[in-house]
Amino acid sequence: MKTKLSLIIIASLIITSCDGTDERADAYGNFEATETIISAQMPGSLTFLNVQEGNRLDSGVLVGLIDTMELHWMKQELIANRNAISSQSEGIVAQLDVLRNDLSNLKREKDRAEKLLKAGATTQQQLDDLEGKIKVVKSQMISISTQNAGIISQVEAVDAKMEQVDEKINKSLIINPISGQVLAKTAEAHEYVGPGKPLYRIADTDHLDLRAYVSGDQLPTLKIGESYSVKTDLPDGTLASHSGILIWVSTETEFTPKTIQTRDERVNMVYAVKIRVPNDGTMKIGMPGELWINDKN
Predict the structure, then answer these.
(1) Which of 122, 193, 208, 254 is 20 to 30 A off residue 236, Cα-Cα?
(2) Where in the chain is the domain with CATH 2.40.30.170?
(3) pLDDT (0 to 100) of residue 141
């Protein structure tokens, strides 16, 4: 009886070892995302910052503002200065503004005529006429500018300062640059911030990268651009399978991180790789994952 029982146990062990249930992943790692730190570009009081940790933001959305009142009054002063200079020019600045507008319109007409000429919908003579008119307007602008160089140079200097003020105002607007999830908020409304002060961190979590570590023996089997199976743990103890694309392989070896297991625990030096995986909502930054090289999903 004991002999029969022993044979049954041995047979069951043989079957278990042959049915592949002891398979292990080829590499292990953790999910990560490329984080972007959004910082202030101008100094001043933070008027508002509509950002909350965990929220998703679209790119191009206004999320905050640094106080621009001082810049506003600076611009108003420059406008007044320009008007004062212009009043001394007896309409010279106005003439130049009209000519600049005429030149802009003629250039648009010329571009349109060139397209029509290629399509055979106009004549070369019409295009030549437009080019002649452009030359005349440019000549008139040069003549007026030469005769009134002093006044014009003052106006141009004020215009340049106004452009600088406008640029500073634009930099005071906090525009979210990428779509993603807010990971951390590092500033609050009414705080004084300086240029370079981090305001919040954001990352695109629609795709996460599994940073795993493979041995030198496994490296030749990996190809950038190929798809590989990535598996994550489920609450019931089973594994969820995902398809990912290998996007990066380190060119240098490193020691196996203490928190990472490898298939061959005798291998001390490993290569880091990244597999980009579409996030179905179940994967989080820092979550562990497994790379199965030969399982193509």
Answers:
(1) 208
(2) 24-61+176-297
(3) 86
Q: Can you give the chain as a three-state secondary structure string?
A: CHHHHHHHHHHHHHHHHHCCCCCCCCEEEEEECCEEEEECCCCEEEEEECCCCCCEECCCCEEEEECCHHHHHHHHHHHHHHHHHHHHCCCHHHHHHHHHHHHHHHHHHHHHHHHHHHCCCCCHHHHHHHHHHHHHHHHHHHHHHHHCHHHHHHHHHHHHHHHHHHHHHHHHEEECCCCEEEEEECCCCCCEECCCCEEEEEECCCEEEEEEEECCCCHHHCCCCCEEEEEEECCCCCEEEEEEEEEEEEEEEEECCCCCCECCCCCCEEEEEEEEEECCCCCCCCCEEEEECCCCC
Burial of 176 (0-12, 13-18, 19+ CB in 10 A): buried
pLDDT above 70 covers a percentage of the chain that reads 86
The per-residue pLDDT for 145 is 75
Q: What is the distance in angstroms between the CA of the first residue and the CA of the last residue of the chain?
A: 46
Q: Given this model, what pLDDT does residue 240 score?
A: 94
pLDDT at 24: 83
pLDDT digits (tens, 9 = 90+) for 178-231: 999 999 999 999 999 999 999 999 999 999 999 999 988 898 999 999 999 999
